[in-house]
């Protein structure tokens, strides 16, 4: 069974979607190296339609990307949760229509499945107890408003399995969900 990893850039106060508090280069080269390590372990990228369309409109056009993100996103098997998307236009991409298809994906052989951005899909995955691990890049910002990683009423018992602080002030916190914790 594959692990489904939710990776989010998040503020100290738990916000993952609000305004312009985050920029990809804000974390520095050490954060980029941590992302590269994650990309090396993941052979599936799960996202929602809106995030997919935003990524599709930007990353394939990056011809001189020293980060490696463009190369990774152009080659990785992408899965898009959508009831409306018909033609992804960015291969290799598979459209998933419901959470049962995500469960089947998790049951298949392969590396990690990473879900980044896509707050609506992330909330659905959390509610369906499909998340095995959270990798949270915590940025030293407080925005006090915006959509949060965990919606109201969503209680989670997590086990901290790793923490790394970077010179930029960003901290990477890795948590296993208790239900999916291999050590429990």
Automatic annotation (TrEMBL):
Q: Kindly give the SUPFAM superfamilies that the UniProt entry links to this protein.
A: Dihydrofolate reductase-like
- Gene Ontology molecular function terms on file: 5-amino-6-(5-phosphoribosylamino)uracil reductase activity
One GO biological process term is: riboflavin biosynthetic process
The segment(s) forming the Bacterial bifunctional deaminase-reductase C-terminal domain are 4-171
| Source taxon at top rank | Bacteria
* InterPro entries the UniProt entry points to: DHFR-like_dom_sf, RibDG_C, Riboflavin_Biosynth_HTPR
Put simply, this protein is called: Dihydrofolate reductase
Which Pfam families does the entry link to?
RibD_C
């Amino acid at each position: 069974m594959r692990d489904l990893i939710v990776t989010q850039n998040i503020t100290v106060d738990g916000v993952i979607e609000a305004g312009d508090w985050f920029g990809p280069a804000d974390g520095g080269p050490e954060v980029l190296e941590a992302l590269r390590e994650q990309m090396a372990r993941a052979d599936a990228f799960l996202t929602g339609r809106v995030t997919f369309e935003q990524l599709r409109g930007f990353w394939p056009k990056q011809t001189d990307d020293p980060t490696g993100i463009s190369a990774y996103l152009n080659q990785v098997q992408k899965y898009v949760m959508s009831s409306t998307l018909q033609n992804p236009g960015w291969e290799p991409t598979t459209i998933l229509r419901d959470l049962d298809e995500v469960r089947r994906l998790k049951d298949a052989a392969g590396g990690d499945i990473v879900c980044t951005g896509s707050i609506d899909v992330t909330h659905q995955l959390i509610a369906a107890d499909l998340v095995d691990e959270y990798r949270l890049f915590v940025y030293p910002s407080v925005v006090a408003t915006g959509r949060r990683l965990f919606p109201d009423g969503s209680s989670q018992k997590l086990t901290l399995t790793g923490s790394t602080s970077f010179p930029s002030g960003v901290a990477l916190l890795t948590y296993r969900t208790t239900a999916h914790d291999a050590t429990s």
